[in-house]
Structures are given as C-alpha cells and as structure tokens.
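Field log, afternoon session.

UNIT: design team B
ACTIVITY: writing a sequence onto a fixed backbone
BACKBONE:
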C-alpha cells in the first residue's frame, strides 16, 4: 500500500493531527495482485453512490484525467478509455501508465463492472480521456508537476470535448499559461476538478497549490475513513470541497482490485471521487454551465459532526461531497453554501403577465346616468327655489 504519510498522535478540532509528513510513495505493482474483491468501495456507502445512480450514471460525459496516463487494457477500463495524448517526451502513449495514479483515478471515476469484483466507478457510464503530463522517465519534469505541461494537457482536453477535467496532482506554482488554460476551459464549458495537494515535510500545510487555487476551479481536499479532516492534506481558504481519501478501492495497470491509501488519506484520491460526482451532475444537467455544476456539489455538501469547528471552511471547504443531494438540488437561492457564480443561474424569470379582463362598460354607463340624474335634480331644486323666492316678492 501507499507508504505511511504520517503518524497519528491525536485529534485537534476534528483534524487528525500528525507528525511531519513525507512525500507519498506512488502506487506500485506490489500494492495489489491480480485478484478481484467482491466488496464495494468503502466510500460508496458514505457518499450514497447507489442512490445517486437512480438519477445519473455519467452517460455522455467525457472526463479528462491529467496525470500519468491510463491503462485502457485493464479489464475495469476496457471500452471506457478514448485515445488521448502524451505531452511528455517519455516513451509510450497516453495509455502507458508507468506510475499508476492515472489508472487508479480513472477507475475511481469510471470503472466498469467485472465478474467477481465489487469495484465500479462513481460514474460507470462516463468516458475517460487520458492526458499524460507526468512521467518519472521524462526529462520535461523533475518529479514535480510542471504547470506548463498541465496547461498543455488542459488545452488539449478542452479541444477534444472533455466536460470534466481532473488534475489529481498539485503543483507548488502556477504559470501564465496555466491560468489562461483554466480560464479558457471554463469558458468552453468544462469544469476543472483539482487536488489541493498533500502536505510535505519541507512545506507548510496551508500553502496554495495549483491549479486548485485558480479562480473557477473546484478544489478538493481529503477526509479520512471516519470523516475527519487530516493534516496530511493541505488546508487553506481555497479548499472548496472534500471527499474520502483513505482506504480507496481501485485498480492499477495490469492488476486486479487494489486498496490504496490505507494508512492516511490523500487529496489525490479524494479528487477522483469528486470528479466522478461531477460527471454524474454534468450528465444529468448537460444544459448547465460548469459553475452551476460546482455550485450543486458545494451547496449540498455535508458537514459531518466529526468535523469541528463547524465554521472553519479551511479544513473541508463547504463539506463532504454528496452526489445524490447535488443531483436533486433546486437552486432557488435558499440552500446554504456559496452563491452560484453563473449569472444565468441567478436570473429570476420575469413575473407572469396574466391577461387582464376586458373592461366592463356598464359601470361607466351607470356613472353617467347617475351624474345626469344628479345634475337634473340640482337644476330642478334650483328652479324650485327661484320660483319660490319670486312668488314671495310678488305677495309683497
């Protein structure tokens, strides 16, 4: 399994406290065998995924995985992976995954059912578009995510129809090209879901990571298997939402079912679950904009009692993703959470102009008649008074 990221020493304010953390090891072939497990992913019960499937299973949505490539030959991913691109200069194509994380994330999102296995993706009818931007054998990176390579991958994915773009790794810096690529993708109708990153031994646990910290990106941090935020994940004001990032059931290149991150949660795998939830929403509400999809997920996110203090959004953002609730949100402005930034979603329809009844002419006629009668009576009264006065004068 993944190497231990931290040693738990206690719990403070709902955050799993830890000793200084080291970089997480990448999953390797030794992390799992070729066997299948009949168990369903642990996160499925917590996130109520089977209930969400009664509304959406992600059909018609292309999800770009911007990472290390995706093994499309894995039985869980056969028929689910489109031809992608390798923007590194490492040998192999987009379906060569020398690291394993790209395949693991893709399976979290869109794994198909295989006999004898309980593993499925959150959006098992979605399609994966592999975009390879990271490779340990490439001289275009030095072990850290290159923001310009990520930008190139996002540009390519957007041009090839991705509606959800997931970036499970986090870069310590951004670039002008990455900022522009994110803005263009959002304008083109794609939602970018990105990891806020995991704390490192030489780093602070509150530093901004990219593209998660770029405006318009749905940024994801992790909670552990009990719903507690962990200090192994980055916490900052740009955290938008969280998902389980521990005991993640998925698969690796050429392997069967695997259980990853059993020691500590990681934002990388939490991002995979949120991307799957986003695919469910995008499939059900294909006419909405990416900002509305993100708003559905954040406005309906749950905040477990285990997370304290309740008003500290730097730990879990708006809460833990809740796909079924997001699919059922009626966005009338009363739900707690962020305001929908999509102007079209905030437009209030004009009041209905109900037809007015035709004017009734009878009241007008009645008023005229009454007026004539009143004037006639007044004239008659006046004439009577004049006659009476005249007769009195004659008597004198």
């Amino acid at each position: 399994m993944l190497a231990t990221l931290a040693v738990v020493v206690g719990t403070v304010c709902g955050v799993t406290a830890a000793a200084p953390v080291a970089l997480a090891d990448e999953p390797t072939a030794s992390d799992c065998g070729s066997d299948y497990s009949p168990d369903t992913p642990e996160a499925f019960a917590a996130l109520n995924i089977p209930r969400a499937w009664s509304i959406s299973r992600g059909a018609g949505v292309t999800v770009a995985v911007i990472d290390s490539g995706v093994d499309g030959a894995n039985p869980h991913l056969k028929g689910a992976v489109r031809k992608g691109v390798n923007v590194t200069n490492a040998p192999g194509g987009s379906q060569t995954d020398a690291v394993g994380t790209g395949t693991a994330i893709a399976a979290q999102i869109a794994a198909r059912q295989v006999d004898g296995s309980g593993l499925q993706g959150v959006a098992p009818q979605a399609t994966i578009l592999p975009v390879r931007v990271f490779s340990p054998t490439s001289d275009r990176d030095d072990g850290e995510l290159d923001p310009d390579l990520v930008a190139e991958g996002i540009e390519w994915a957007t041009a090839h129809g991705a509606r959800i773009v997931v970036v499970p790794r986090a870069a310590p810096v951004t670039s002008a090209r990455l900022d522009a690529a994110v803005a263009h993708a959002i304008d083109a109708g794609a939602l970018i879901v990105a990891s806020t990153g995991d704390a490192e031994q030489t780093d602070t646990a509150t530093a901004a990571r990219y593209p998660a910290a770029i405006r318009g990106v749905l940024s994801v941090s992790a909670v552990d298997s009990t719903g507690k935020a962990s200090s192994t994940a980055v916490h900052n004001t740009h955290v938008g939402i969280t998902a389980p990032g521990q005991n993640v059931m998925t698969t690796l290149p050429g392997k069967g079912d695997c259980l990853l991150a059993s020691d500590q949660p990681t934002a990388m795998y939490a991002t995979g679950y949120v991307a799957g939830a986003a695919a469910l929403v995008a499939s059900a509400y294909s006419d909405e904009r990416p900002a509305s999809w993100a708003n559905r997920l954040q406005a309906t996110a749950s905040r477990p009692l285990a997370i304290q203090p309740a008003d500290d959004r730097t730990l879990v953002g708006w809460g833990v993703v809740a796909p079924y609730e997001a699919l059922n949100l009626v966005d009338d402005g009363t739900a707690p959470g962020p305001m929908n930034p999509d102007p079209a979603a905030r437009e209030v329809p004009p009041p209905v102009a109900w037809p007015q009844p035709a004017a009734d002419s009878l009241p007008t006629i009645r008023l005229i008649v009454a007026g004539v009668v009143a004037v006639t009576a007044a004239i008659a009264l006046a004439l009577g008074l004049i006659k009476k006065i005249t007769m009195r004068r004659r008597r004198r």
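LOG NOTE: The first strand starts at residue 8 and ends at 12.
NEXT ACTIVITY: expression trials, pending approval
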